[in-house]
Amino acid sequence: MTVRIEVDEDACVGGGQCVLAAAEVFDQRDEDGVVVLLDDAPGVELQEAAREAALLCPAAAIRVIE
Questions:
Q1: Which domains occur in the chain, in start order?
Q2: Predicted TM-score of the model (pTM)
């Protein structure tokens, strides 16, 4: 199954939970910690980590579209 990831940079609070859960999919900008989406269509091996990152996000700034 293919999933697509979307992030709302304006909602991001820079908590970094996404990077801890899925460093291959997410990063943070150095200057303000806002999420950077590295892979908007992760492979099957990264999809569960991306879902976990969305669940852990304190600002609900990550959306996984199935």
A1: 4-65 (3.30.70.20)
A2: 0.95
